[in-house]
Amino acid sequence: MKYIIPTISLLLLLCFLSSCGNPGGVTLVKDGQAQAVLVVPPDSDTMRLQSIASFQKILERSTGTRLPEVSTLQEAAQYEGRIVFGPSAITEGLGFGDVTLQPEEFKLKTSNGDLIILAEDRVLGSDKPMNIWTDIRSEEARVTQWALGYLLDRHLGVRFLWPGELGTVVPPHENSSLPEMDVTWQQPLVRRSFNVIEANDANIEWLNYHQFAGKRTDYRFRHSFRKGADNGPWQKTHPHLLAKNPEGIPSVYRNKPAFFKLCLTEPETSSEIVRLWREAGAPDFWDVTPNDGNGFCTCDNCRAIDKEYGNLELSKENIWKRNGDAQFTERYVWFWNQLLEKMRSVNADVQVGIYLYGATRDAPVHQKLHPGVVGEMVSGWDFSRWKQWQAAGIDGVGLRPNWLYMSAAGPHLPLNQAGDYLAKARDNGMLTISLDCFHEYWADQGPYYYLLTRMVARPEMTKDEVIAEYVAAFGAAAPAMREYLNYWSDYSKEVAWNIPAGGKLSQDPNGMYEKLSLEKFGEVMHPLQGHWKMMPHIYTPKKLSDADAILVKGQSMTDDPDTIERLEYFRDGLRLVVQINAYLRSGIKPYPDDKLQELKIFHQKMKAKYDYWNSKDLFFLAYWGMSGKDVDVVGM
After folding, report:
1. What DSSP letter does each residue of 479-510 carry, written as one string?
2. pLDDT of 137
3. Which of 14, 80, 256, 321 has the fewest CB atoms within 10 Å, counting from its CB?
4. Cα separation values, 100 from 8, 118, 215, 267, Å
């Protein structure tokens, strides 16, 4: 799938007119005075009104002027230009009643001195989280905001570096105009999501300015045999179908109730999945991703499938514990193909969803997939796996990396590796993107978040263009910010953190992380806890001090108070790492409670100092059992 860039009647250039006219376009502000009016239909929903309020706030920061808002064309008669929102009775009266919008599509059209904005938001009607990882607001597509963001981005030069006012870079303009335009835009990816732990107005607004929220598909990939997932918690309802341990007993691996596996060769297993799918109305999409962790079935029949279809012969103990990153893709492809034969006899369009992850990370070699399999890739920087799955016959691939867990809360900026991978994915049919998880380490990893989301919002931009854009937002201090990004980007490559992908993928056995992990802890630790434990050994005082010196240099290069404060934000990100390191210094439990309290006090000070600070390090220290296991993970 190639990306289709919007068709625009004239090349859209940054256009700020002073004394000259603006034929065909709309003048917003001239000499500090409003020249246009917003025509907002009286029946506009809350989401549209919120998007307009955000636009007005940013426009006022840029020009010092807010545009008047009216609800009828009659009230707008005295103004030179009108920005009219629809679809509505008003836009129908202006001749746009026959325009049909596709899902998640907006149109911007200048006509007779007006700018018509047509956009339909996807309102889900509740702010109740779906689970601890996913707030329902992150599933909503605020398409009106996308349309207004298109104008702010391309015509006012606004950059949304991180949530909040400080992270929003707004160039000042006494005069502001929009050129003649005819734009139709639909976000190319059919689903875009961060796993948002704590949604708030600021981070939801930021995500939508980057078009990184919402979906127009039934695709929802997850470990599907858990509470609330497609197939439910079978360890309770179907214990006889659980994977058999080396003693031949249906069991849950290490008694983790959300991590059980199934015996795939039990005929009832596939029949029961089909029954549940039919009870749900035989929808076009049904997720069948195995649960996380190990504990795969060791029965003779499942092992026979391994041998017949994958030429794989492993001991029962090795299968159960999945030693050596064992792959069971061939076993699962055999199973998925059986499922599809049954399901497509009922619904010829059905697709089953899977994670390309863990024991099913590698593409099959000895079998082809039946039509109807779609998946999300959970892997490292090696793009060859993507191509191999396509060669095996998968219908489509989305991107769902665990990259953001790497380095824990440290300044990890693998901008080149991530940007190159994402560019290849865009060029090779990427369907969806789902990032796990929204850790919100903005002061340490914010440029990384910006790169990933910006390359989705602006698919015509290259990795290097996005990085250059981020750097340029620091004005006279841009050279220092470029040096700072290069400093941590180079160090990320030197450290070579291993990658969480249903196991631990090595970047480089001779890299700093693996060598130091062996030296300090006697093993190459799994990323999810290991990267936290290794923070004090990777982010040494000297390394942090040298990075801070770059930021101090940047502050000396500018007299702009906002830029100085933005650089101070990054300095406080380094101070956060110092605080976390002080807590984790020993590397073993029990960690010092006094240092934990100091870390909590530090966060309180940051929340008071900045308009946005929402770092989730305390959450994850608890989640990984490193500050008391006070986060319930069962069933998630």
Report:
1. HHHHHHHHHHHHHHHHH---EESSSEE-S-TT
2. 83
3. 14
4. 18, 10, 18, 47
Phi, psi of 113 (to 5 degrees): 85, 0
Quickly list H helices, 13-172.
46-63, 89-91, 143-156
List, in sequence order, every beta strand (DSSP E) within 288-420: 351-356, 373-377, 396-399
Tokens 């629809």, located at residue: 86
d(CA 622, CA 635): 17
Contact 410, 446 (CB under 8 A): no
- State the Cα–Cα distance between residues 289 and 286, nearest whole angstrom: 9
Residues 6+ apart with CB under 8 A from 296: 243, 261, 302, 319, 320, 322, 328, 331, 359
**Better-predicted residue by pLDDT, 634 or 129:** 129
Position 612 confidence tier, pLDDT thresholds 50, 70, 90 = very high
Report the pLDDT averaged over residues 468-497. Answer: 98
């490559």: which residue's tokens?
Answer: 493
Task: List, for residues 313-351, the tens digit of each pLDDT value.
Answer: 999 999 999 987 899 999 999 999 999 999 999 999 999
Distance CA 620, CA 288 (A): 28
Q: What is the pLDDT of residue 19?
A: 32
Residue keyed to tokens 């059980």:
260
d(CA 320, CA 101): 51
Cα dihedral angle (582, 584, 585, 589), rounded to 10 degrees? 130
Compute CA distances 451 → 140, 419, 473, 488, 513, whole Å: 22, 7, 14, 15, 24
